[in-house]
Amino acid sequence: MKSIRAIVEEEGISLTPQRLAIIDFMEGNRTHPTVDEIYQDVKSMYPTISKATVYSTMQLLCELGAVQELSIRKRGEACFDPRENKHQHFLCRKCNRVIDISVDLYDEEDIIKAIDSRGHRVEDVHSYFYGVCSDCIQSK
Amino acid sequence: MKSIRAIVEEEGISLTPQRLAIIDFMEGNRTHPTVDEIYQDVKSMYPTISKATVYSTMQLLCELGAVQELSIRKRGEACFDPRENKHQHFLCRKCNRVIDISVDLYDEEDIIKAIDSRGHRVEDVHSYFYGVCSDCIQSK
DNA sequence: TACTGATTTGTAATCATTATAATATTGTAA
DNA sequence: TTACAATATTATAATGATTACAAATCAGTA
């Protein structure tokens, strides 16, 4: 899997110290941090960074496909995930953690079984498909 | 499939005129309305209704399992769906519509094929699993 | 070194949602 | 029917994430 930094460098996008600090924090990160969590962490190394920079950098990384924005937290903040090997996301409604489930499965029922077999309890599944609808493809 | 109204009545919850107007609008509704869209529609019949009432009623209907809250719109508003037969949700990034895909399938790749076969183009899939994690089950 | 464009910063604005408190309505018991 | 308590509704204020914006800074190049 290509690193976030490698993807950014390949695109010829300038690696400012702020961006580098954010990328370093995200690289291999499995905690699914929110913008505020990224901001708090980077600020300790780089005290003058602004939250607006975190927003713009995360948007950039999403556009490059280097990270993924998750909207798993209902009515809450976005959180981010480096795009790595196929895995699923499980949100615990008690402790509010987003837990990676590393399975290479595509069938919802198989995935639920895999999550259950790790000792968790699945109560709900939301699957969202994104793209372009037939009307918009035609009226292009 | 049980109607929203039937579910509410079974629970012995009082059917105020405001709730009834909201339920009537949601019953069989396939447009996945947001709170504001529900509010605008109901207001035309019931001009004094408050948006706070729409919020509280939608929360009630969700708790009863009569409707489902979707967070398919990234960084956007919640939208709602009467709980009916199994189907999938497809968001068009151009026209911003949420389109129901009526399939009784559980395999992501099969679902994508079904959506494609209707002339749409799927670009991304987000599947979110919700429940209680093993740590929280144990430390109960 | 000077200049141009991109980036960062801090702040203000926006927008959905939640909280709150006053008012109105409902259901129930006398 | 009347009175009362519990519940629901309303309007408004508060919150919190995100976006917009303009000024200041920085990077790369002629």
In short:
Chain A is 40% helix and 21% strand.
Descriptive notes:
- The structure is a homodimer of 140-residue chains.
- Chain A has helices at 4-10, 17-26, 35-45, 51-63, 108-117, 134-138; strands at residues 67-70, 79-82, 88-92, 98-101, 121-132.
- Chain A has 140 residues and is of the alpha+beta class.
- Chain A has 2 domains: 1-84, Winged helix-like DNA-binding domain superfamily/Winged helix DNA-binding domain (Arc Repressor Mutant, subunit A, Orthogonal Bundle); 85-140, Dna Ligase, domain 1 (2-Layer Sandwich), CATH 3.30.1490.
- Helices cover 40% and strands 21% of the residues of chain A.
- The termini of chain A are far apart.
- Chain A has 6 helices and 5 strands.
- The first copy, chain A, is globular.
- In chain A, 24% of the residues are buried.
- In chain A, the strands form 2 sheets. A two-stranded antiparallel sheet of chain A has the order 1-2.
- In chain A, a hairpin with a 5-residue loop joins strand 3 and strand 4.
Question: What is the secondary structure topology, with strand pairs?
Answer:
The structure is a homodimer of 140-residue chains.
Chain A: H1 4-10, H2 17-26, H3 35-45, H4 51-63, E1 67-70, E2 79-82, E3 88-92, E4 98-101, H5 108-117, E5 121-132, H6 134-138
Antiparallel strand pairs in A: 1-2, 3-4
Chain A binds a DNA duplex (30 and 30 nucleotides) through residues 14, 16, 18-19, 34-36, 48-53, 55-56, 75-78.
